[in-house]
Fold this sequence. Notes:
38% of the residues lie in helices and 10% in strands. It has helices at 22-26, 37-55, 60-75, 123-133, and strands at 15-16, 19-20, 86-88, 94-96, 99-100, 103-104. It has 2 domains: 7-32 and 109-134, no CATH class; 37-97, no CATH class. The model is unreliable at 130-134 (pLDDT under 50). A hairpin with a 2-residue loop joins β1 and β2 (19-20). One iron/sulfur cluster (SF4) binds at residues 36-38, 79, 81, 83-84, 96, 98-99, 104, 106.
Amino acid sequence: MSRILVLPGTGCRYWTAGFCLYPEALNPGLEQGFRCLVLRKLEDSLDALIDRGEKQNLSLENTGRIWLQRLVRDLGETWDCPDFMPVGDEFGGMWCARLEGDLCHLRLPPCPGRCRRYAAMPPERDEGREERDE
Ligand code: SF4
Ligand code: SF4
């Protein structure tokens, strides 16, 4: 019996680092499980801070400033995640290489290869990605 070869999904517009963005593109923001754990935690702390700021009559500007200070302090050089993969940006900041917007590559479903939802990427975007993935 001959084996069926599955083509790689790398040319698909939903492909990212071996994972599939299709379910997120279908219902943006619906699946909270795709989101970065660290950013989710920070967002929860922002919500709590806004609640507290409202009770203490703090302006939104001051609340934002406090949150930003905490963000810088909490994120620091190592994020509180066992899968954190540090990568620097051009402004001297530190991010996780597995972050895509507010989504985490590792929390997305893996791409098993070219499937029926495969959507070819426009050539100019494809070229940009090849450069990035090298
Ligand atoms: S080929 Fe299919 S599984 Fe792979 S990224 Fe594209 S849509 Fe997702
Ligand atoms: S691996 Fe990175 S992007 Fe994923 S949850 Fe951890 S810190 Fe967030």
